[in-house]
Every structure is written in structure tokens, then in C-alpha cells.
């Protein structure tokens, strides 16, 4: 059995690396233009101070992955100022501060992400410093040619515009997913007030494959988990939601979900192979092993399907993070008293609790057979309730035989 790789940087991680040098070149060109055009230390100090404030603001946001979503918006503002602001030598002091403030937000977002994920901070700092020196070098070159010439400063300004526009475009292309998630977050904030606790928050692996399992009581359970997990997640989702016209392009091309076909009986499960491939790529796969939403008040959890065992049987060294989501049952998007959105009030700041246990590798003897493995994982999810201070549920006992799935998707 081939174990999953333990370290593969994801696309977003590499994008953060590639964005920083041009961003720092923009910083160097702009600061150089302010200096040679004004010859006054006060605007230079204001420029540097604005950038430091921008960096500080991004460190107030706690999610080290989603923070990257601030960069495209900030760099769009940088490009807009560079394009319409004219010669930096004529900028008012507030614009001299606002321009680096936006730059600082973008750079701080990337730095916060890198501080969490990066293994080579020294190399990263050298590249950033080299880009800044290149930016200064461009300005110094024009300084030698004659800084008082408006035409020379105009050329410098268009160099700045080109760098800023190109960097903003690259940010949107490469950081679209965290930007989409960050943009959607205010809607979730209005509806739900999330609280996440447990050792899984601090002990979550920063790299490599992880399998996240949880109970499933409401439509937005994948979004609750995505907000508290500080890495991009790959959720498994039924075809019913994937095929919705508005969501399909986002789910397919941005989130890259794994689609679970809806069929009561299936001979093959291609989604399991997709999930294994995602684990091999070092991604975080989120699965709700019950297979469909909770239907009954008295049944807090259903038998897990075989899919989760098949994944772990194929990749037994994969860390498993068991979670319990409390508060989804009874919400506007649950089956409490009828189908989701029916016979229920719209949620405003409804409390949602998420308990995350420490990641663990399931013992090999447990994975030897699917039934003991499924029962073991069910009990691990139930045990995660303790992190939320919830009363314990009776442990699930190993049945005498397996039971067939009762609804579409229950075996996945």
C-alpha cells in the first residue's frame, strides 16, 4: 500500500510566493518616486508608516488561509490609485498614506499566510528584499537621467502603473478561492455565530493530507468547517447541490469539490478514488460519512458508509480529524420539522459550535475490516462533543452484520 505524501505545497501557497516580488517592486518604485519627486522626509515617513499600518491590520484577522482574500481587493485599489492618481510627486499627504496602506494590506496578508506555512522564511525574505531593491534601482536610474524632467517622472509613473495592474491581475487569477470565501463570509456571519474549540484547532497539520469527518445536520456544514480550518478544503458534495446553475461554476472551478452521484445502489464509487487522489496531492478532504442530512430528532448520528473506510484503507497513514457540529439541527437549513427552508424561521446570528478533536492515525488493526472501522470513526465523532461541553452520547456498538443504505448517498 503506497502511503500518501507528507508534503506538497498547494497552488495557493505557491501563488503567495510568486506575488510577493512584484508587489515589493511596486512598493520600491512608489517610494522612490515619492522621494525623488518631493525631496522631503515627511512624506517618506508617512509612506512607510502607512505600509506598516496595513500590515498590522491583516494580522488582526485570524484565519491564515482566508486572509489571502484581502490581497486582490487591496491590490486593485493600488492599481486604481496608480492609474488615476497621476505623478506621486503631486499626491496629497493622505494619498501618500493611503497608497502604501493598501500595499501593506496585500503584503501583510501574504506574510501572515507565509508565517504559518512557509518552511524557508530566509529565502522568502531575500527574494522580497531583492524585488524592493530592483524597484529602487529603476527610480535611481531615472534619477541619474534627470529627476526634474517631467517626462522622466512620467515614465517612472507608467512603470509603476504597469507593475501595479499586472500584480492585481495576478492576485485575482491565483487567489480567487480565498477571495470568494472571504467575500461570502459576511452572509454566514449574519446568519450564524460560530464558535470552534478543541485541540484540533491548534494541532491541525499545516501541510500534507488530512481527512476531516463530521456529523451532518444542515446544508452549510461544509462552510462551517471551511471557516475554522486554516487550509483550503476539498469537500465531498452530492450532485443535487453541485448541479445548481448558480453554484456549479464556483464549486467546479474555484472550490473543486468532489461530486457524489445520487443513486440508491451503485457498483462503483468514483468519488472515493477522487478523494484518494486528493489526499495523495496533500489536500484536506472533508467528508460527512453518514451520507445525507440528519432527519430525526432522536437519531443524532447514522451509520457511516463504507466510503470513509475505503479511503483510509487505501491510505492508512492519513491523519483523521473528527469534528462535531452543534446547532445545525433546528436551523433554517436543516430537516427539523420539514425540509430545509420550510416551516422554520430564517436564522439571524444562530450559535453554531464546532468541536475539533486532535488529528490521529487510525490503528491498523481497526482498519483491517470495514465494520469495526466505521463504528470506531462514529465514536470518534461522538466523542468530539465533549469539546463543546455537551453531554456524552452512548457509544455505538459493533453490529452483528452490516445494514444496507436506506437513502441515496448514504454509502458515501
Report on the structure:
This protein has 412 residues and is of the alpha/beta class. It has 15 helices and 7 strands. It has a 7-stranded mixed sheet with strand order 1-7-6-2-5-3-4, with helices on both faces. The longest helix has 28 residues, at 11-38. The two termini are 22 Å apart.
Supply database-style keywords.
single chain, 412 residues, alpha/beta, seven-stranded mixed sheet, 15 helices, disordered N terminus, disordered C terminus
Fraction of residues in β-strands: 5-15%
Shape from CA axes?
Answer: elongated
Q: What value does the average pLDDT take?
A: 83
> How many extended strands?
7
Helical run tally: 15
Largest sheet: 7 strands, mixed
Runs in which pLDDT lies below 50 for 5 or more consecutive residues are 1-9, 119-124, 405-412
Kindly name the structural category.
Answer: alpha/beta
Strand order of the largest sheet: 1-7-6-2-5-3-4
Q: Please write the string of helix (H) and strand (E) elements.
A: HHHHHHHEHEHEHHEHEHEEHH
User: How large is the radius of gyration?
Assistant: 25 Å
* Ends apart, CA distance between termini: 22 Å
Percent range of helical residues: 40-55%
In short:
The protein has 412 residues and is of the alpha/beta class. The chain is 52% helix and 9% strand. It has a seven-stranded mixed beta sheet with strand order 1-7-6-2-5-3-4, sandwiched between helices.
Secondary structure: elements and pairs:
Elements: H1 11-38, H2 41-58, H3 70-84, H4 93-117, H5 121-145, H6 150-174, H7 176-191, E1 192-197, H8 200-203, E2 210-214, H9 221-228, E3 233-238, H10 239-242, H11 248-255, E4 258-260, H12 270-280, E5 284-287, H13 307-314, E6 320-326, E7 350-356, H14 364-367, H15 370-383
Parallel strand pairs: 1-7, 2-5, 2-6, 3-4, 3-5
Antiparallel strand pairs: 6-7
Helix pairs in contact: 1-2, 1-4, 1-5, 1-6, 2-4, 3-4, 3-6, 12-13
